[in-house]
Amino acid sequence: MRYGYTPFCMTEIVFADKKKLWDTLESLDGNLVIIVSKSSVMRWEFENQIHHMDEKTRARGKSFIWIDSVAANPTPEDVAAVLHRIGGRTVDTIIAIGGGSAIDLAKAIGAFKEMAGCINQEIIIDGIRTKSYMHSSFPDIIAVPSTAGTGSEVTQWATLWDKKNKVKYSLDTPELQPKLAIIVPELTTSLPSTMTLSTGLDALCQAVEAYWSKHTSPLVQEIALRAVELIMENLRNGVDEPKNLQARQRLCMASTLAGMAFAKTKTTACHSISYPLTLFFDVPHGFAVSLTLGAVLERNLGHFPNDKRLLSSFDQHGGLNTWLESVCREVIELRLPVFGISAEDLPVIVHNAFAEGRMDNNPVALTEDDVMDILMSVM
Q: Which residue, 54, 64, 236, 262, could crosslink 210 as a Cys pair with Cβ 3.0–4.6 Å?
């Protein structure tokens, strides 16, 4: 039997400015779907480029579809709506320009595109549960992240949310990893401070959780540690000086490094506890994961390799909790009541905090009582 090799990263990663971005995209020769919200196109002044790309693609006899609306947390219903727009047309390449939601939407469309003409949200949900999407052929996905946080541009996962039934769905297959990630730090300069902070904290948690994951390795730890250092050194500058391109570039680099790290390990307790915070209380993902980072760190110390190196990187900034307070100052306080969560709400969070493949990936096995104590510490 031949050994099943798993490449460390299958995504080509390119740093570019806006001109190089469009030079690259306009050189594509295929049937294209581009996902980028209309508001983002207006903000970045991309109208001419979108229309020019449309004309060039159609002149070659190919199809071009612009999906100009992207939900903050895409649902199976959102995916079905896009697939109905695509209909029976061939799709070779899906380009996502935006945050993690745009990239997740692109991945979900790629997973279910073969059923585009006769699909609804029930079929998508059933396909996720049975993993029938893993037998499809996949288009190339090109990811252009506009935030420095999710790492989705280098991972094989996509997340869909069912707010009505309070369920989070995950797609997971190597074919969903983007073929190309084009990192354009300039796109992140238009982010509001809360989004810069939230996405930066998401990347920090991804890196830290990759570092202490049960599946970590020396190489993963080196990559994760560099991501942690870049975020802790630059996130406050990104919040205070939105047009600071040097800080933005370093945060983009940190986000991609964090994505590469947790792509090999998956995340752990902080992400697991965060899911009900977002599903039930609409806590933005970056804040939801970072709320419990300090308390989970306390429990994990001494139970994963090279823990003192990670702790040292925090100590350079006065400790993790001190740094978190400093970076969040005048933007938001990382306390549950700030998000409308009271002590009476904690049992439902605890009950839904044990996501398979996340909580059991934590180096220390946490009980429901442990999770309750962790949540009480941030009340």
A: 262
